[in-house]
Amino acid sequence: MKWIFLSPHLDDVVFSCGALVWELVQAGSQVEVWTICAGGAPKNELSSFAHSLHTTWQVEGDVVQHRREEDTLACQELGALVKHFKIPDCIYRRSPGDGEWLYPGEEAIFGGLSPLEKPLIEKVSRQLSQTLVKDEILVSPLGIGNHVDHELTRKAAHRLKQDLRFYADYPYVREPQNQSILKVMSESEDWKEIQYKMSPSSLAAWKRASALYRSQIKLFWEGEGELRQELEEFAALMSGVKLWKKNGGR
């Protein structure tokens, strides 16, 4: 059986459900991680927001290529293949009309997908449909945290005729207000919760793979030690790993 995990950025799948990816590979499944927003950054100009993030990441040279390499190494650690699409991260995207930055700050990237990007949903969905095979299991982010690129990925996936499942977006789901979303889903007749076990070996592999995103650890954690501790806490919260599926859905 082949599983395709959709990652909005070059880290989301591994951070959110790396242990499950490892378990599936060990069980003999073929697993691929497809990152939607893995396109290059503008060569001549960055927004002040994008520039500040680059400064935090402390990467010299081609920042996006560096992140692609981190992602490839992390997925290899789990036994998964990678595919990197060419849509740029939202911090690099401009209005097709006046050329203004569509998401010039943190408030904007969590403020909903711009109406100007409605055609982008169809573009991503079309690219996915041209690559997917009918019997593959597709796993999409739920979009918890309301990041626009997570919204883009979820909406594009929802348009496809695939066996579609969802994962909780980590680290955004660690926030109490976002954990309440999962509680509501668990009590809803609209959703089916699928529980997977997490072995000590898969937890260890998840930690190792996540730690390879060195540029991104600085955004969310004090260091690698805090990352590893929080992954343990997240695993305990989920009693392993969970996916969700719409009742009556594909």
Describe the structure.
This protein has a single domain (2-246), classed as LmbE-like (Rossmann fold, 3-Layer(aba) Sandwich). Helix content is 46%, strand content 15%. It is built from ten helices and seven strands. A five-stranded parallel β-sheet has the order 3-2-1-4-5, sandwiched between helices. Strand 1, helix 1 (12-26) and strand 2 (30-35) form a beta-alpha-beta unit. Helix 1 packs antiparallel against helix 8 (200-211) and helix 5 (118-131) crosses helix 6 (148-158). The longest helix is centred in the first third of the chain and has 16 residues, at 63-78. The chain is globular. The two termini are 17 Å apart.
Protein topology:
Blueprint: E1 2-7, H1 12-26, E2 30-35, H2 48-57, H3 63-78, E3 81-84, H4 106-109, H5 118-131, E4 137-141, H6 148-158, E5 163-167, H7 176-186, E6 191-196, H8 200-211, H9 214-220, H10 224-238, E7 241-246
Helix pairs in contact: 1-3, 1-8, 3-8, 5-6, 8-10
